[in-house]
Amino acid sequence: MGKRNAWLIGIAAVLALLRFVVQPWVHAQTEAHEQLQVLTQRLDRSVGVKHNRTAILGARTELETATAAARSRFPSSPSAEAFRLDSQRRIGAIVSASGLQLALFDWTLEGKLEDASLAYGRVRFQVEGPLRDIAGVHGELEGSLPFLAVREAQLNLTAPASGLENTRATLTIVADLFFLAEPKR
């Protein structure tokens, strides 16, 4: 029975050695291997960035140029209130210059587009006058205010007339006006 107990104790010792020494060592080796793979991938990316530095800087310059060109169409304003006042004056001036009447002007919504670093205000306004002039002012608004995005336009004829020259109409426009808000300091 002594030899049998020695074998059992030996087997128990080997199993304990496997469980408490070998298995943690294998686990540590696996973790070290995974960390080495991650570091190797980072090193490969870094080498790739270094080798492609000129192309990356060129793409960055092109992106900055394209972004500056796209952002140039949006006015910069220190506050939403200043932008609202300026936009209302500009729209009013365009409508008045066309000989039409601005019957309604209402700011309905404000918001921000964080990804684009833009703020906007949604406006609803009505223009009244001869149909021919209303068509022209609509085009003038979209052409001279590149930061204006018309969301909805509704044209109502107010009085039937004998010809298009004498037909009066009301144009209701819902539009978003985008601007670059200056960062708060």
What does this molecule look like?
- This protein is of the alpha+beta class and 185 residues long.
- Helix content is 55%, strand content 29%.
- The chain is built from four helices and five strands.
- The protein has helices at 2-51, 53-71, 80-97, 131-144; strands at residues 76-77, 101-113, 118-130, 148-159, 168-181.
- Strands 1, 2, 3, 4 and 5 form a five-stranded mixed sheet that branches.
- The longest helix is centred in the N-terminal third of the chain and has 50 residues, at 2-51.
Secondary-structure map with pairings?
Blueprint: H1 2-51, H2 53-71, E1 76-77, H3 80-97, E2 101-113, E3 118-130, H4 131-144, E4 148-159, E5 168-181
Parallel strand pairs: 1-5
Antiparallel strand pairs: 2-3, 3-5, 4-5
Strand percent estimate: 25-35%
Question: What are the secondary-structure elements, in order, as H or E?
Answer: HHEHEEHEE
Radius of gyration: 35 Å
User: Which spans of ≥5 residues are poorly predicted at pLDDT below 50?
Assistant: none
Structural key phrases:
4 helices, elongated
Summarize the structure.
The protein has 185 residues and is α+β, with helices and mostly antiparallel strands.
